[in-house]
Structures are given as structure tokens and as C-alpha cells.
Amino acid sequence: KAGVTQTPRYLIKTRGQQVTLSCSPISGHRSVSWYQQTPGQGLQFLFEYFSETQRNKGNFPGRFSGRQFSNSRSEMNVSTLELGDSALYLCASRHGTSSYEQYFGPGTRLTVT
Amino acid sequence: TQLLEQSPQFLSIQEGENLTVYCNSSSVFSSLQWYRQEPGEGPVLLVTVVTGGEVKKLKRLTFQFGDARKDSSLHITAAQPGDTGLYLCAGPKLVGGYQKVTFGIGTKLQVIP
Asked: Which residue, A23, A67, A104, B12, is the most exposed by fewest CB within 10 angstroms?
């Protein structure tokens, strides 16, 4: 079974631009969560989607948004990029909502200049 | 303040040594997960502990869940360079009516050959 895939793996953007990251979960997994990882803050939860509905949201500004499609693939969007948005963005999938074991993709390394 | 406190944050040891890392909280968790993350990759699930006092072994790694389900430890016997990585503990907490997975900041382990 293929693992979680994320595209692109690396991205360089300029302040003020917007970016869209993509995540394909493990086949059969309906829950997708997004995290931001920085050296100082660790993994910070952004949001979780299940069956195309946002179930939970972390403490991030409205510039961060996401969505999930009927095939469980998910995208997250960051508008008006700031230097502080530079981070590793991780996507994780799990089969349902009763198990908390998550399977992570390799991440997208976003650098904002 | 992190809901899950991990210590130490950094650990550098020689190959063959034993080590223990800790994951502590003032809150009770229904389960805790341990992950290992290598540079440039996403975290990989190692184990889930569910029952207070539970001990699980994964080759040279021993995981223990505290009796009160507020803390956990990971012990590595005869560490090898391949054990190098960031060790993260994580657990679900009820937030806004939904279970949200929260992560500790991690223990960065370096095993020197």
C-alpha cells in the first residue's frame, strides 16, 4: 500500500505571495491532518479534515486554509505569505477517527524570502 | 506551555550506550504514541501505549506508559547510529468537542559511532 504523498517537496516563495500544498493520504484513509513544524515550536496542529469536512482547527490565522476532496486528497493554502511561515508542512492520514495513530508524508519544505 | 513535556530536548551519546527519554504531562491521556523523525522526512509511528503501566518492546526500544497515564518513557538499549533522529510523543485531547492530537517538542538524539 502506498504511503502518504505530499507535493511539492520543496518550495521557495516571496513575502505576500500565496501557496497551495497537496497531500494524498493512504488509500482507504479518510482523515487528513496538517501540521506546521518549526525548530522552536515543534509540530503545531493546523486542521483536520474527515469526509470533506473540517473537524478541528488549530490556532493559526485565517490566512491558513484547507479543503478535502471526495477522494480524500487534501490541499492547504497559505495566502499573503510572511517570513515566519517558513517551515516544514506535514500531512498525516489515519483510517478513521477512533484511532490516533497517524501516518505522515515526507512534508513540504516552504521557504519564504 | 506544551501539554506534553519531553526531556531531555537534546541528547548526544556514544554507540553502545543506553538512554531513556521522557514524555510528561499533568493531564491524563487515553493513549500515547511515539514517533521517530529523521531529517527531511515525516515522523514514523513506532508504538502506541494504551493501558496504564503497559510496557511494549520493539527490538532494542522499550516503551512504558505510566500507571496514571500521564507520562511515558522510551528506553533504548545499546544505541546505534541508526537510532539517530527526533523522538516525538503525541496523544489525543478533547478540544472543541473533537479529539485533537497534540505533540511534544521532541528529543533530538544523536548516536556517535
From this structure: B12
